[in-house]
Amino acid sequence: METKRLEYFLRIVDCGSISRAAQDLGLAQPALSQQLAILEGELKVQLMYRSRRGTTPTAAGWQLYQRARIFLRQLEQTRASLLEADDQLSGSVSIGLPTSTATIISVPLMQRVLARYPQIRLHVIEGYSSMLTEMTQSGRLDVAVLFFNSQMSGLSIEPLWEEELLLVCPPDTQQTGPVPLRMLADVPLLLPSKANSSRRSLDAALAANRMGVVPIAEIDSIVTLKKAVQDRFAYTLLPWSAISEEVESGRLTACAIEGAPVSRTVSLCFPDAVHRTPAHEKIAEIIREQSDIAFESRRLVGMRRIAA
């Protein structure tokens, strides 16, 4: 079985269509269809359902998709390790960063990797922690920054810092000092859905204090949450890393929550399903460095470094 056919198969599943996959790969559609048919013949099983709307994997196809992705990643890591044994760090490294944390880490990380290890190809994926957690556990990400303070199935976790969620207020709000947790019940509040780590942290703090709040809407977009507050439509809760530019420029204001702070732990995470290569270790080292630099050079409200 040729690994190239497995790569073609993964692209078909990701695209949901043979024609779109062929376009992405620069192949003729009949040629790609033939490669899929050969793979199905080699495995003696149907891998895809075909319809006018596109393609979807069968149960066997989905199983192959998950295993082939891990296999191809491990194969690439083996190639990279052989080069690293010859003192040439190379290969691709997939990194997951939550949107709020990316403002501190992403650009400096890329700059440092390019300067120190130009043969390493970075693939940075930004998104919500719930999505990144699933991708890391399944081995689709090599390294991720996630919100955990204890062991999680399929992950190795290294805490980096603790961050409090702040009440984010419209720009002309007079209140700038700390506010009690109970105030959240008195303002129109926009929150992310319950799967989001910041929402889970808030719900835990409210439950511990036998309180509850009902948001006027749930929005899983930091950009939209901030825009709604800027437009004086509502309030929300976000960490300083997500709002520092807007607060410092006067477009938003933020208040700490006193008495019962809402906080979460930011951790460096590795998937147990993926062999950790020297390239992965170097990327993790740079993430640690950049978090240290951020604490030393920036005003980080409500954020506390965790000692190693």
UniProtKB/TrEMBL annotation:
<dbReference type="InterPro" id="IPR036388">
    <property type="entry name" value="WH-like_DNA-bd_sf"/>
</dbReference>
<dbReference type="InterPro" id="IPR036390">
    <property type="entry name" value="WH_DNA-bd_sf"/>
</dbReference>
<dbReference type="InterPro" id="IPR005119">
    <property type="entry name" value="LysR_subst-bd"/>
</dbReference>
<keyword id="KW-0238">DNA-binding</keyword>
<dbReference type="Pfam" id="PF00126">
    <property type="entry name" value="HTH_1"/>
</dbReference>
<dbReference type="Pfam" id="PF03466">
    <property type="entry name" value="LysR_substrate"/>
</dbReference>
<dbReference type="InterPro" id="IPR000847">
    <property type="entry name" value="LysR_HTH_N"/>
</dbReference>
<dbReference type="GO" id="GO:0003700">
    <property type="term" value="F:DNA-binding transcription factor activity"/>
</dbReference>
<keyword id="KW-0010">Activator</keyword>
<comment type="similarity">
    <text>Belongs to the LysR transcriptional regulatory family.</text>
</comment>
<protein>
    <submittedName>
        <fullName>LysR family transcriptional regulator, nitrogen assimilation regulatory protein</fullName>
    </submittedName>
</protein>
<keyword id="KW-0804">Transcription</keyword>
<dbReference type="GO" id="GO:2000142">
    <property type="term" value="P:regulation of DNA-templated transcription initiation"/>
</dbReference>
<dbReference type="GO" id="GO:0003677">
    <property type="term" value="F:DNA binding"/>
</dbReference>
<keyword id="KW-0805">Transcription regulation</keyword>
<feature type="domain" description="HTH lysR-type">
    <location>
        <begin position="1"/>
        <end position="58"/>
    </location>
</feature>
